[in-house]
Amino acid sequence: MSDHQHEHTAEGDPCAADSGAERYWTVDEHLADILGTVGPLPPLDLQLLEAQGCLTVERITAAVDLPPFDNSSMDGYAVRIADIEGATEEYPSVLTVVGDIAAGAADLPVVGPGQCARIMTGAPLPPGAEAVVPVEWTDGGSGGKDAAVGMAPHSSSPEGAGGEVRVFQPAENGAFVRRRGDDITAGQVVLPEGTLLGPAQIGLLAAIGQDSVRVRPRPRVVVLSTGSELVQPGTPVGPGQISDSNSFALTAAARDAGAIAYRVGGVPDDAARLREVVEDQLIRADLVVTSGGVSVGAYDVVKEALAPEGGEQPPLGAISFRKLRMQPGKPQGFGLLDGTVPLFALPGNPVSAYLSFELFVRPAIRAMLGAEEVHRPVVRAVLSQGLRSPSGRRQFARARYVAGGPGEPGSVAPVGGAGSHLVGPLAQANSVIVVPEDTTSVEAGEQVEVVLLEAADRPI
Ligand SMILES: Nc1nc2c(c(=O)[nH]1)N[C@H]1C(S)=C(S)[C@@H](COP(=O)(O)OP(=O)(O)OC[C@H]3O[C@@H](n4cnc5c(N)ncnc54)[C@H](O)[C@@H]3O)O[C@H]1N2
Ligand code: MOO
């Protein structure tokens, strides 16, 4: 056995100390309980930029035509086509300029026979005109034989356009004209129900004149970490203390899943204090995540605070603490606070907390957002190093996955060992290998199931 394989054995695994009598939940039972409890949040009208990343809950119909009026796609001259028929550089058509139309102009000159109007990109086509000739096809009103390179800026000739212009080329009816409604017509469905609102969709809503949109809002997720040993990163770490990393990783993971996340720093191991903090946070929480304090230690206060046994205070909610047939992530708490707000009590070990979030909390957030697919993508890949797994548990081994060529499976290698405290290798992982409950070893070259935690092949 290689050293690497040795690292992935179940030896020294804290999950090995189980008594036979207790009921264990499978990963699937736990997930089914979660997804059976958590559903989409009620829809809300949000301002456009607040709605970024949300899904629409109804189809959206344009109330207006886009463009709203016939307009020019070039800076040039609005003309009648009969006037410029057969125009050449040698025999240009000479037209009288009757006005100047900037984008936003409302008073438009009428273009009669032998006349034209200077026009800017986006400006309305004036009555009588049938096409636009770009300024480069004309002398720009200079009276010379050479094509113009541009127009004199309005600031340097505020009197606007007048006099004559020579046009050196003919144009077809409608040339350089963007017709009213050629993009979108009033009454047209522009976004179907369930559209994910990204920059282009938000731009489209603004273009049709909407300032708000009805969506499933992002869940507001409050992340708490518990433990008297925790200090805020950036402050000195005393004897026996560690920097609180879970609240940062889990807040970032909640954002990554599409939530609005609030990090509440380390709460000491004091059940009454924790209870107070959770109660305070309920005002802004659609979902609460805690880490730590769910095992069997004397200071594991999350259980005590949320599901007090025989105490004077009633429980804050119906939170069930359970053990799962998985590694890492064996101890888990889940239930509803106040009958409405889902609470996830995740184990404190950083790898356990993070993977539990990925497997259980992320799908809940996605379900609240109304997403059709709530799970991370799962692929099959060839294992490049053998690994061991404890019997009776589904193991989730941190790994690096590299996609294969077209039609080929990718390859995957475990990173780091099985210890739930190993945050170094976790930061190298882009995936987890799933080893089923009844499998105790997988050899190099065999295919395994891999959950992708991010786009594969991202350089570290
Ligand atoms: N006798 C038993 N002991 C343990 C068992 C068991 O079944 N019997 N289960 C082990 C397993 S598995 C896990 S997972 C942990 C879960 O423990 P808790 O959820 O109670 O977590 P804590 O004891 O509070 O902390 C565990 C570990 O993680 C560190 N930690 C906690 N919070 C943070 C944080 N915010 N940032 C960084 N690190 C954190 C903490 O210092 C501990 O080292 O229980 C096993 N024990
Ligand atoms: O191994 Mo525990 O299961 O670290 O979560």
From TrEMBL:
Residues 222-367 form the MoaB/Mog domain. SMART domains: MoCF_biosynth. Catalyzes the insertion of molybdate into adenylated molybdopterin with the concomitant release of AMP. Belongs to the MoeA family. The lineage of its organism: Bacteria, Bacillati, Actinomycetota, Actinomycetes, Kitasatosporales. Pfam families: MoCF_biosynth, MoeA_C, MoeA_N. InterPro entries: MoaB/Mog-like_dom_sf, MoaB/Mog_dom, MoeA-like, MoeA_C_domain_IV, MoeA_C_domain_IV_sf, MoeA_linker/N, MoeA_linker/N_sf. Keywords: Magnesium, Metal-binding, Molybdenum, Molybdenum cofactor biosynthesis, Transferase. It catalyses: adenylyl-molybdopterin + molybdate = Mo-molybdopterin + AMP + H(+). Pathway: Cofactor biosynthesis; molybdopterin biosynthesis. Its EC number is 2.10.1.1. NCBIfam families: Glp_gephyrin (NF045515), molyb_syn (TIGR00177). It comes from the Bacteria. Its cofactor is Mg(2+). This is Molybdopterin molybdenumtransferase.
